[in-house]
Task: inverse folding
């Protein structure tokens, strides 16, 4: 299991706006864009947001999104889920990943 530092949700929101908002929304009832709406992300199985067309790779991954799985995924999405259509290269810095996850924990409820 990854050693996940404490994150700062305010810093995470800035990262989300800069790197994620182009493809994702977080609010309840938000529309899917290139990527799925992330509301209710924590505790949801990969490839299961209603109404979004996922790759078979995402559907078949079969993990549940949580702090640990997101921390690993956000470092290198294509390595974590080979065949995903997500084009984001990832966040290499642990602190940035922790900040983004802290924001997502608040913003996707």
Result:
């Amino acid at each position: 299991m990854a050693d996940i530092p404490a994150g700062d949700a305010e810093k995470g929101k800035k990262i989300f706006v800069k790197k994620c908002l182009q493809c994702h929304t977080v609010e309840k009832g938000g529309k899917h864009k290139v990527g799925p709406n992330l509301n209710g992300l924590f505790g949801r199985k990969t490839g299961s947001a209603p109404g979004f067309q996922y790759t078979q790779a995402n559907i078949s991954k079969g993990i549940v999104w949580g702090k640990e799985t997101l921390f690993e995924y956000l470092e290198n999405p294509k390595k974590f889920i080979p065949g995903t259509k997500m084009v984001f290269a990832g966040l290499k810095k642990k602190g940035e990943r922790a900040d983004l996850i802290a924001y997502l924990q608040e913003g996707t409820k």
Notes: The CA atoms of residues 14 and 93 lie 15 Å apart. Helices lie at 9-19, 56-61, 67-75, 77-80, 94-107. Residues 94-107 form the longest helix (14 residues). The chain has five helices and no strands.
